[in-house]
Amino acid sequence: MQLHLPPLPPELQPLEKPKFLAKGTGNSHWLLITRKGELIWRQFGQAPGCNHEREAKILQLLQNRSWVPWLIRSLPSRGLLFYKTPGDHPQAEKLRPSTRQALLEILVDLWQQPCDLPGINYEDLVFSYWQETGYAAPLQPLVEQLRTLANRWPEQQQLTHHDLHPGNLLLNDQHWTLLDWEYAAPGNPWIDAVALDRWLNLSDTEKEHLIRALPDLGLDNPWQAMTNWLEGLDQLWQAARTRQQE
Question: Which residues form a coiled coil (predicted)?
Answer without folding.
Answer: none
